[in-house]
Amino acid sequence: MYERGITTIDVKEVVRSGNIVEEYPDDKPFPSYLLLGYINNNPLHVVVAIDNNSKKAIIITVYKPDVLLWKDEFKKRK
Questions:
Q1: How far lies 56's CA from each of 39, 63, 69, in Å?
Q2: What is the pLDDT of residue 10?
């Protein structure tokens, strides 16, 4: 995350106000979600797993989506 120039504040903002673009209900040990948010008008993807028992979110990865790999405003894979 830090190597990509993404801050903790950016990640928290996407988790708080981003939209779910993909769901991975069968991920183990917890279901996870791909979120899309915008920081300073730049798209940001956050993959987060949710531990429903402890009510905690675990950040799996964070990245700036590549326009060559995504379409529909970074909501669908090409």
A1: 23, 21, 30
A2: 97
Could you tell me the pTM of the whole model? 0.93
In the block, residue with structure tokens 């915008």: 38
pLDDT for position 1: 87
Q: Could you tell me the end-to-end alpha-carbon distance of the chain, in angstroms, rounded to an integer?
A: 24
Q: What one-character DSSP code corresponds to residue 78?
A: -
Residue-by-residue DSSP string for 23-71: EETT-SSS-EEEEEEEETTEEEEEEEEEETTTTEEEEEEEEPPPTTTEE
Q: How far apart are CA 14 and CA 57, in angstroms?
A: 13
